[in-house]
Amino acid sequence: MKKKLLSLFSSALLIGLLAACAGGEEDSSSSSSEKGSNNDPITLYSPETPDLTKELAAKYEELYGQKVNVHYAGTNVLVNQMMAEKGNPQADVWYGGGGILPFESAVDKGIITQYIPERAEDWEVVENGIKMKHEDGYYVGTELFVLGFAYNTELVSEEEAPKTWEDLLDPKWEGKIQFPNPAASGTATLMVLSYMMQHGEDAGWEYFQKLAEQANSIPDSGSGPTKAVAMGEAHIAVGFDFMAYEHQAKGESVDFVVPDKTPILVNPASLVEGGPNPEGGKKFMDFMLEEEAQQILANWYHIPINPEVESKTPLNIDSIRENAVDLDIDWVNENYDRIRNEWKSKIN
Questions:
Q1: Whether 336 and 227 share a structural domain
Q2: Rounded to whole angstroms, what are the CA distances from 191 to 108, 238, 261, 327?
Q3: Distance CA 227, CA 243 (A)
Q4: How confident is the model at residue 207 (pLDDT cuts 50, 70, 90)?
Q5: How far is it, in rounded angstroms, from Cα 223 to Cα 181?
Q6: Within a domain: 31
């Protein structure tokens, strides 16, 4: 009888252990899915136009049935927020920031991690002077931005519009130019750093002192000067291409010049380090390079990076390559804050 009871007890114990092991495997599986391999929402941080990012999110939800929550704020605000959240990240994807500079800086901050969509794996890191993706995979370009000159077509003819950065110093433009404040605008900081890399700092400060004397206003907003051109408050403005073409599409008297040599940057997307849904984040980054997302970017007058999508502006990746100026990204990262601070004392 004792042997029979012992046998029954042993059988029950064995069944219990097997069940526990099976249960442990299920728990392990569910634990691994907690980091977003299921259908959890994706959180997108972006400083780009809210209506644009909402349209991208809606298209993704339509295609994949997975919710995308968009959080909008300025680039510096978002970077500070991601820094504050490092212990408990809330975002999965960061898209946009006026080009690669804030993403380059973010690599050393530990707030983004490595992921390159399959579509971009074979891209060269730098193609014709344009850095297309991070060399270690921390970001990938989704579209192209060109820094150049917007002009009011009722006040300036196509023939007389400036074609080079030096043309902005022509006496005929005195009191008729606007450009953003480099102490506040990343767009303008890029302008200053690019010129100094080509001509040296001494020549750069001399140039920008003269340019500041040509301006009737130096607003903090990167888009402010182009808006002033559209309103007839300035003849010429420094800004990104899409700013001018957005105004043009509204029927306003604005056109755009790509200078002979000028910064041309990809606007990137990156996976946030330790985000709650990394698998969803990767899938959204894949989507950003697909035709559906690229078409939305093109409809907003951004230059698509996918060659299968046609630009809505006269500019495309092939037509602007020769205008791209090589940027020493390491020099930019080392001098970005210093040059901005020196602008305050030397120019303002």
A1: yes
A2: 23, 9, 11, 11
A3: 8
A4: very high
A5: 11
A6: no
Decide: helix, strand or coil at residue 80.
Answer: helix
Taking the C-alpha atoms of residue 173 and residue 157, their distance in angstroms, rounded to an integer, is 13
Phi, psi for residue 305 in degrees, rounded to 5:
-95, -20
Look-up of token digits 């794996």: 121
Write the DSSP assignment of 146-187 as a string of letters: EEEEEEETTTS-TTTS--STGGGG-GGGTT-EE---TTT-HH
Distance CA 208, CA 214 (A): 10
Residues 199, 335 within the same domain: yes
Domain assignment present for 308: yes
Computed over its alpha carbons, how large is the radius of gyration of the chain? 26
**Residue 170, domain extent:** 145-263+328-346
Q: Quick one: 103 and 122 in the same domain?
A: yes
With beta carbons less than 8 A apart as the criterion, state whether 42 and 89 touch. no
Residue 204, pLDDT score: 96
Task: Name the percent of the chain lying above pLDDT 90.
Answer: 72
Q: What is d(CA 224, CA 201) in angstroms, rounded to the nearest whole number?
A: 26
Q: What is the pLDDT of residue 24?
A: 39
More confidently predicted of 15 and 226:
226
Indicate if 130 and 166 belong to the same structural domain. Answer: no
DSSP 8-class letter at 66: -
Kindly list the distances between the CA atom of residue 198 and the CA atoms of 335, 337, 342, in Å, as whole numbers in the listed order: 14, 19, 18
- In 3-state terms, what secondary structure has residue 240? strand
Residues 109 and 238 in one domain: no
E strand or H helix that includes residue 5: helix 2-32
Residue 90 placed within a domain: yes
Beta-carbon neighbour count of residue 19 at 10 Å?
A: 10
268 and 103 in contact (C-beta within 8 Å)?
Answer: yes
Domain count, the chain: 2
Same domain, 184 and 199: yes
